[in-house]
Design goal:
mainly alpha; 76% helix; flat
């Protein structure tokens, strides 16, 4: 009776999935940086990135937070507008 063992994925399939995941993460990081730059301005982003010698571990966190705020800005406007309408 033949045993039913799961076949391992081929190296090419694993490499293709890893590459696709890397590109998705790269797109997300680029979106966060562009969003942060759009929110505070490119000159201010250059100033924030210039502080990498003072506190380098916080730079990705700060840029990520600014990017998330930029992405969620429309949702926040709708939520705050509905709260204001309820108060009236």
């Amino acid at each position: 009776m033949p045993s039913r063992q799961k076949k391992l994925p081929r190296i090419g399939a694993v490499r293709a999935r890893a590459t696709a995941l890397w590109w998705r993460l790269n797109d997300a990081a680029a979106t966060l940086y562009v969003g942060a730059a759009s929110l505070i301005g490119f000159e201010a982003l250059a100033l924030v990135l210039g502080f990498t010698t003072a506190w380098p571990i916080f730079i990705p966190v700060a840029v990520g937070l600014l990017g998330v705020i930029y992405v969620c800005r429309r949702w926040l406007k709708v939520a705050l507008g509905s709260l204001r309408r309820r108060r009236r």
